[in-house]
Amino acid sequence: MRRRIAALERDNAELLRSNADLMELASVAAHELRSPLQTIVGYADLLAAGAGGDLDAENRRRLDGLRTSAARLSALVDGLLVFARLGTAVRRREDVDLEALVAGACEDLAASMAAAGATVDWADLPTVRGDAAELALVVRNLVANALMHRRPDRPPAVRVSAVQSGGAWRVSVSDDGPGIDERDRERVFRAFQRGPGQGPGAGTGLGLAVCRRIVEGHGGRIWAEGNDRGGATVCFTVPIPVCWSPF
Length: 247
Known about the structure:
Mean pLDDT: 80
Number of domains: 2
Shape: globular
Distance between the termini: 47 Å
Number of strands: 7
CATH architecture of the largest domain: 2-Layer Sandwich
CATH class of the largest domain: Alpha Beta
Strand content: 15-25%
Order of helices and strands: HHEHHEEHEEHEE
Number of helices: 6
CATH superfamily of the largest domain: Histidine kinase-like ATPase, C-terminal domain
Radius of gyration: 21 Å
Largest sheet: 5 strands, mixed
Low-confidence stretches: 196-201
CATH topology of the largest domain: Heat Shock Protein 90
């Protein structure tokens, strides 16, 4: 029995070292990508400035495509850095007002919400215990994701709610979009995976993977399901500490 325990401890230590090495590699790679990315953007700007109004429609389209690709790569690098840091960051434990997090997410997304005519409703959200910065990232990613997955014939309407379930708060972010097929509801939480029907420019494919890493780091779980509006609902739990009450 002692030998088995010792072997398990060695395997666990090796796994932790391997994960740390992978996170360090991802962080270094993301930093190294920034320099050539900035060069690409700089040359694109110089080309546009030098050409002035002499660019024809086709070359202007190509230059716009270059800028769009560079912006997406920049977002991907940012997401990769966030994902890597989550493996090594020290997680704080503090009181976190979920209503304030949703309001902050709506402020961050105000421009895209106005352009789409979108609404985000919430009420009576609790105060939970966790890392405020990380949980803010979860809420923002889920609201942004719900706004992105919309039907073409109507403005998106998103609802955020929470109920106490057992020893945890279950937070739900629901949309009225096309929904997520049951067979894809686990896959979308993997890194670099996008929902069905999304084009190559629709996000980085890291948002839900980041959410899962944060939620599981808080001792909760995250999943997707359908809802009565035909859309998708992403739920996550935040455990309620023993001998702690938000009231």
